[in-house]
Structure formats: C-alpha cells, structure tokens
Amino acid sequence: MTVQEQGTVVIRTPDQRLRVFVSSTLTELAGERAAVARAIAALRLTPVMFELGARPHPPRELYRAYLAQSDVFIGLYWQRYGWIGPDMDVSGLEDEFRLSGSMPRLLYVKEPAPEREARLTAMIGELQSEGTDSYRPFRTPRELARLVRDDLALLLSERFATAERAADTAGSSPGSPPADRPGTRSLPLTSTSLIGREQDIAAVAALLASPEARLVTLTGPGGVGKTRLAVAVAERVQARYPRGAVFVPLASVDDPARVLPRVAAVLGLPPDAARPPLEALAEHLAEAPTLLVLDNLEQVVAVAADLDGLLARCPGLTILATSRTALRLRAEREYAVGPLTVPEPSHLPTTEELAALPAVRLFVDRARAVRYDFALTEDNAPAVAEICRRLDGLPLAIELAAARTRLLPPDALLARLGTRLDALGSGPVDLPERQRTLRAAVEWSVGLLTEAERRMLATLSVFAGGWSAEAAAHVSGLPEDATLDLLDALARHSLVTIDLTDAGPRFRMLAAVRELAAERLAGSPDAHDVARRHARYFGGLVEHADWPTERQGEWAARLRTEEENLRVAIRWFLAHDITPLPHVFRILWLFWQMRGRMPEGRAWIDEVQLRAGALDDRGRAELLLTSAVTAVEVGDDDRALTAVDGLRALEGRFDDPYLVDSAQLAVSWILPITGDLDGALQVASSALDGLRRQNEPFAAFAALTVGMLEMALDRDHAARAHLAEVDEHGGRLDNEWLTATARTQLATLAVRSGDLDEAQTLLAAATDGGEDAEVSTLTLTFALVAAAGLALARGDARRAATALGAADGLRRRAGLRAWPSARPGEAALAARVADAVDASGFADAFAAGAGLDHRRAVALVRGR
C-alpha cells in the first residue's frame, strides 16, 4: 500500500506497516482508545499510542517523537482538554493536533458532552476548518471502531489512487515528488455551495493578481461569509502558486505571538524553541510563490507587524486574510464583504425575479437541504423575500432561518422573527461554535471591543435606519472628535457600516447587531438619558426648522432619511412629554401627505388629542389644525368639521399670524365638504394674502388651494394663473410635490380648452422619472383623474374608466379619499365616462384599474 504525504510517495511492505498515531486524553477515553487500536490492527496497520511504549523521556518529547514517526493521525475528543505541561501554553492534546498538520487526519468527537471544557470547545470549533479529511461525531466505542475502520480504508485507497495519478501525470516513478506542493488538502472542504458571491470571487481573485496587492483582507461582520469567500477565492487562484494555497485557521488563537507558530505548524515545520518563528517561516517560504489564507485575524490584529515583516522577507508570499477589522498596514488592500442582495421593501419583484436574487437563492438552497420538496412559489415568495430583507441579507442568518423550514413554513417563520438573535435556533454541528447561532456570531464581535466601544455600540442601538456623526455625538453626549474615533473603531470591527452620501457620511448597523446592542443598552443605567437625548435631537430637527424658504426638496429628503428615527422620537414623546408634538405634527403633516403616511400620522394625532388638556392654547390650535387637514385627506369629514369648530373657538387666543393664516387655509380645505366653494375661496384668498405678506413659503400651498377652488368654480383663466405661479414657485423652492400637483391641475385645464397634446405633456412632466418615479399617492390620483379626462376627450372611455378605477384603488389602499374641492368635478367626470360605455364595460374597466399598483398606474398616466 502507498501513502503520499508532503509531495513524496511512501511505499510500505507488510513488515513495515503504516503507523497510525492515536491522540486523546487517556483516562476518559480508555475504552475508545482500545477499540481504535483493535480497528487499526485489523487493517494490518500499527497503532502508535502513548501508553504502549516505554517512557525514559519526558512525556512531551515522547509523544512528539512518536508523532514524527507516524503516517496518519487520529484524534479522539470528548470533554477534557488535557494536561498543560511546564513552559507550554496549550495541552499535549492540542499540541499533538497542531503538529499533525502535515499528515492525513481523521478526527472524531464523542457526543453528548454536557461538561466539555471551554478550551476543548474552542479547539473542536475549528476542526472542520483545519482541512481535515474526516470529522465525525460518535457515541459508543463500537460505533467509533466501525467509523475508524471504514475511514482508514477509504483514506488509504484514496491516497493510493492519488499517488498513481501523480506518477502518471509526471511520467516518473512513484518516488518522484510532483512539485513543492503539500500532499494533504489544506483548504477546508465545504459541504454546501457558495451562492451569490460570483462577482466577489472574481474581484478578489483579480486583486490578488495585481503585484501591489500582497496582503488582501476580507472584512465584514460575523456571519457575512468571509471564510467561505476566502476558500472559494483560494480554490480559484491556487494554481498560480507551486505550493498551492495554505489555509491557517486562527479563531481559537487569542495571543498574537501564537499566530506565526500556528502557521509554521500547518506548513509542517518542526518546532524549534531556539529559533524565532519569523526566521523559520522566512527561510521556509523564501522565494517560492505561496498563498497563505489566514482565517479570523480580528482577535490577533497585533500580529500585523510580524506579517509585514514576513511579506518584506518573502517576495513570493501573498496573504489573503479574513477579519472583522482591517490590519491597517500600508501593504494591505481591504475588500469589504457585504451582505447578499435582498428585495427592495417598496417594490416586490415577480417570483421569477425573486428566485434570481442571491439572498433568496441561498434561502431556497438551504431550505431544500432540510426539506427536499421545498420550492419558491407564488404563495410563499413574499414571506421568503421579507425574511431575507429583515435579516439584512446576512448569509449566516439566512442559513439559520432556512433550516427552520424543517418545522415552520416561511409565513410562520416570518411571524417569529421579532427577535432575530434567538428566533433562528442553532446551525449545523460542523459550523464553528461562534457561528452555531446568530447570537454567538454577534457576541464574538462585541467581545473584541474595548469598554468605551461597547458603550458607544449600545448607545447607537437607539437609532433606527442609520444616523449621522452629528446625531451620534449629541445622543452619546461625547465631543465630536471622540465620537468620530469610536465610530471609526466600530466600523473597523465591521459592527457599523458607512455610506458616503451627498449630506456626509451616514452610519448603519445590521439588525442582529442592533438587537444585541439594544439588550445591553436596556440593562445600562443611562438607557433613559440616551433615549431622551435621541428624542429631543430628532424632535428639534423638525420643531426648529419648519418648511424653509429655499431647498425644500433637500429638507424633505432629510426628513425622509430620518423617518425611522422620527418614529422612535415620537413614540418617546408620546410616552414621556406630549407638549412638543403639536408643533412637530403641524410641520410633519405635509411630509406625511407626500409620503403616504396619513393613517400613521392620524393615529398619533388621536393619541395626543386624548390628552389635549395638558396643552396650552397655541398647542391645542396646532393640534386642531393638523387634525383638520389630515382628516380631510383620509376622508373623515365629521372630524374635519369638528376641528374647524375648535379652531374658530380659539380665534384671538394666541398671537401668531402664521398660525392664524395656516388655520384659515385649513378651513378653506374643509368648507367644500358642506358645498360652500365660494366661502372656501374667500377664506383661502385671505390666507394667501396673509402668507404672502409674511413671505412664508407656505403661500405656495395657499396658491394651489386657490387655483383648485377656482377650477371647481369654472374660473379657468384665474385658476391657470394661480397654478402656473405654483409650478414656478415649486421649482424655485425645489419642491417636486408642488410642481407635480400643479401640473396635474394644469393638465385638466388643458383638456377643458381642447389642448390635448399639452395635457399629455403636463402629465408626463408631473410623473417625470418614468414608471419608477416616486410620485406621492395624492399627486398620482390627481394625475389619474386628469388622465381620465384626457382619455375621454380622445374617445377612449374604457381607458378613462380604468384611470378612475386606478385612482380609487390607490386611495382605498392608502386609506385616503378624494380632496373635497375636487370631489364634485371627479363625480361629474365619472358620470360622463359611464354614459360613454355600457354599464358592464365601465364596471370591468374600473375594476381592472383598481387593481393596478403604483408603478403600473404611473405607466397608465404616461400613456402606456
């Protein structure tokens, strides 16, 4: 029989049998050791065991000598880590394991192990990633003996075949070394496919090919798949290196001084206490091109200087490292490994499109591993997409979630994802211990932080949807420089990510990281102060700004960016201090209108109204104003009229011209409910004059109101003048909502005057940006009604009915109703359309339109 190791084929005759070294603690696995010895002997091999020989030398010298003369290594592990000798930092058990890196290894772990020691747990956690040929659990000595017998037989047959292939390829005798390449596989074998990383593999492989990139570090949060990516890249490029790719797992190494000795052990270098590891490695690697894959460097980043020295002395050496933090060497090229692509929350693709997304592909693949008949269907695709989105595309989290489909269908699993860290259970036993659960993966990263960094991480969990450096400084109560230093440190540890935006850097945190950080914040004494500072910062963002005279689009974009933080702040004020909320709501209602958030805003207003007695007259007036205008939009006419009565009762009780004119404008929106269009126009005109005198940007909304009321009263010439003013004013203020809404009304006027091409041009401009344009629901329904009038004027009554149905469907789904001043005109238009087609045709077309989503409704307006 033959065994190929370290590039040399060794041939043994029956009287010189292959030697199999058996490593384990002696007492607790005595029965298992005896069973393994019998299995080895049955294959005509020689068991090499510590207890079988004389011991004239110290134990360490004895087992090292035995190991040096052995051909195959068998490791048996259960609960004890073993004895640590003098001048050693690891037990003899781990020392034997390290020294065996150059030979074939078969490893077995006894289960269950309720009292397993922590250091043995850490060691076992990396066995699979060490590149072993076999790693199996067992329960009894008999089962172990069977496994060892079968695995040894398979190992030897595979080695024989490998040696024969190498000899054939080289055209030489079996004794000729095929190359300076390790005989054992260094890269760990993986049992599952790598999904969604094709571009990453190509990019990193290309980076390694560049002469200046001799150290490439893959960074990213725990569970993002750095190790798997590194192995895939190494497999792609290892043919470039005569030695192949050498994989060195370092997760269990917590001392930077132990990194180079571990590298030396994996390379098969004998221990030499008299010689520094750097010297030995530099001599061994020399000029030969070699790729070292150093996995999990984050807890030993202080080894960076040694790695820099090794690179300087070994021109042919390239290092591919994985770490949650960069090493910060000048020779380093960092490659940030991001989460997998997930579906956008605002637009759910088709099932076929979802099936092509990397995150969904991974979920389906891993779900099929536990349920062979799992498939992505029309019914479960939305739940699968939402699971992947909530898990931020983090591969580990997705794999853990998919494993749960053994017991739960996707919709039931989605319902349990409120607490991500614990809802997903544990992963496969061949994962490292730190990645068996999502909680363990996150806690591993957090455990590497300083106390100040942990406090900052906990503080940052109060943010939702990201934050700016300014916000972090305010909420943490730290100086800006100290805040930036801590944010930089957390980013280096891949616990926060940085997005570079036009408004400056914005920081984010994965949902799983935020959840663990929030747990820590909840248990800290400053949790209340942090939440209070957060609420007041974002309340102040709205309260002290109001609608600016210029750059309204920019201001609204900032509100949109901070929308999640505003929600958190509002909930805090509702629980602790409602007095700032009426003013905040008065400013936010226009934003709610633009973003389709009226039902949510109404719920908050209702909650504050229950405690309106705690407010002063100004606060009550602002609350009534916002209640009135939001009630109009959601179609709560009774509440709107009640609010008007309340506003009139407060007249003269506060001195704020802007608030008085705004209240007048709100009244003008509500009076059409009672049919008083003339009274509404009079009040709106008065409000417009007052706001113009104050040079308030809100005057543009008053002009829009006046123009729409004039349209309702068939005063088209005057209406056109006011609406053109709004269009121009909206452009000057950078307010797309104003310009788009004004153009929808101008389009209706163009239809009335018979200028149909102009009407189509205006509608296209109102929905500028194509089918993906972010047009507010209110503006889009105005545009659909105008498009219905245009279609009818062109003789296409069915298309007109479809457009009216689309407007109705969008409103109903958003909890809205037609604007009071526009209701009579829309009802008259619907009657004309119904007269132009038969009853069933109108109903069918209207129903078809009601089913259109936002995107298809935009396409309808644009004539598609």
From TrEMBL:
Q: Where is the DUF4062 domain?
A: 19-98
Domain Winged helix-turn-helix, which positions?
449-522
Gene Ontology molecular function, alphabetical: ATP hydrolysis activity
- Which residues, by range, are in coiled-coil regions? none
Matching entries from InterPro entries are given as: AAA_22, DUF4062, HTH_77, P-loop_NTPase, TPR-like_helical_dom_sf
Where are the stretches annotated Disordered?
Answer: 165-187
Where is each ORC1/DEAH AAA+ ATPase domain found? 213-300
Q: What is this protein called?
A: Predicted ATPase
